[in-house]
Amino acid sequence: MISVNILIEEFSWYLKKTNITDISGHINAVKKLLEKIISESLSIEKLTEKYITDNFSYSKTKYRLGKFLSFLKTKGIVTNEKAFLLNKYSDDSFEKCRNIFLEWADRKRKSISTVDSYKGALKHFEKYLCDIQINCISEIKRKTIEDFKNYLFKVIGKNGSKISADYQSAILNTVKLFFRILKKENKIIYNPTESVKSIKKYSYISQNYFSGKQNNNRRNFRN
Q: Which residue, 168, 156, 161, is CA-closest to 201?
């Protein structure tokens, strides 16, 4: 399975062969395009001149993406006979990406307890992905994360009861960090967790607030 990085690297070589000097500008334009297509779950055959014109207004960007379209045609990726999902050019297994994340944690000298909490949280995420038959990181969309967030409300812990809101929050925050690091390490170009809200922790403040409110209601009732 070819990664997005390899696809972009090949495009970079293509630009050098065609004597294009503004390589970084072309690559940045292509990254924005790929992120948009992946987030919309579109197939790469949708990448036509009309699609580029309809979605990008800046003339330089259109020119750069036109070069990318030419490159895809030379590679046989864009054809009339067959559509290739862009997801096939994304980073592959969850296991590989998890290892990249844990290597980052090791470089940052995270404590053993922190790394163990990361591993535990990612185990929950991996189990969920297995349950819904997702094997590749590139297949994960925002809806996947939102559904996982709802799934956490039903997870049963070792004590036989549902896991606490604090633990749910910690798991989701780890998953969000996981994707942020993968993007920072240039392993993915689309972060499906970016607009997903964190789970609110159950705080003693709210507990005391509601307890106080309840006591006030009782006093009012007695009066």
A: 168
- pLDDT tens for each residue of 46-97: 677 777 878 888 888 888 888 888 888 777 666 543 333 344 444 457 888 9
Using DSSP's 3-state secondary structure scheme, residue 136 falls into: strand
Inter-CA distances, 71 with 11, 18, 32, 50, Å: 7, 10, 17, 17
- Main-chain phi, psi angles of 176, to 5 degrees: -65, -40
Residue 77 lies in a domain: yes
Single pTM value for the model: 0.56
Q: Which of 66, 89, 112 is the last residue of a domain?
A: 89
Q: Of 89, 111, 134, which marks where a domain is finished?
A: 89
Which of 178, 188, 155 has its CA nearest to residue 31? 188
Give the residue numbers spanning the domain of 55: 4-89
Report the C-alpha gap between 24 and 172 in whole angstroms. Answer: 34
